[in-house]
C-alpha cells in the first residue's frame, strides 16, 4: 500500500468545510472571482485552498517540456497577440494558481514515493483545471461560449477529457489513461472505474493517477 505518511488524496473534510463558507468581500468588481466548485471531488483538496488568491508561487518556471512529454497539455505562453475574451479576468487568478501548482508538482523531487505516485499530483491538477472550466460553462453557466472555447484552445482545459464527461457513465472520469484498455491487464479499464458496490476493496487508489473511484454512481 501507500508508503507516504501523509496521503495527499485521503479524506475530503477540509473541502466540505470550504464549500460551506459563503463567498464574500469581493468588492473590487461587481462580480466575485469565479471559484473552483467541484461537486464531488475525486481527489481530496490540495494543502492550500485553491481559492486563496495570493498563494501563487513563481518559483520553478520551467516544466513545459517535461509535461508535454507526459502527454499533458500545458497552456500556451501569454503573448500580446492573444485576444482575451470578456470575463477572462475573473478566471485568470484561479487558472494561474492551478498552473503554479502544476509547476510545483512537476518539479517536486518526490523522494520516497513510488514511481507511479510521482505523477498523481500532475493528473490531479490537470483534472482540476479541466473541471473548473467545464463547470463554469456547462454547470454554472457563468462564462461565455467564447471564453470556454478560448480556454480549450489555449490548453487550460483538456478537450478530450471534457468530451468524456459529457457521456453517460463518464461524468466523473478522473483521467483518460484510466479508460485506455491497452494500459491495463486483460484489456480492461482501471480499478477506479469499477463502481464501489462491485469492488471487493472499498478504499482504493488507482496506480495511474491516484483516483479513489470515479464511476458515476460512486
Ligand atoms: Zn478514476
Ligand atoms: Zn485516472
Task: Write structural notes for this entry.
- Residues 57-69 have a biased composition (Low complexity).
- Residues 53-72 are annotated as: Disordered.
- Belongs to the BUD31 (G10) family.
- One of its GO terms (biological process) is mRNA splicing, via spliceosome.
- The chain is mainly alpha-helical and 218 residues long.
- It has two domains: 34-166, no CATH class; 170-218, no CATH class.
- Helices cover 34% and strands 0% of the residues.
- It contains seven helices and no strands.
- The protein has helices at residues 13-20, 64-69, 88-107, 115-118, 120-139, 145-153, 159-165.
- Helix 3 (88-107) runs antiparallel to helix 5.
- The longest helix has 20 residues, at 88-107.
- It is globular and about 50 Å long.
- The two termini are 22 Å apart.
- Bound molecules: zinc ion (2 copies).
- Residues 174-175, 177-178, 192, 206, 208-209, 211 line the site of one zinc ion.
- One zinc ion is lined by residues 174-175, 177-178, 192, 206, 208-209, 211.
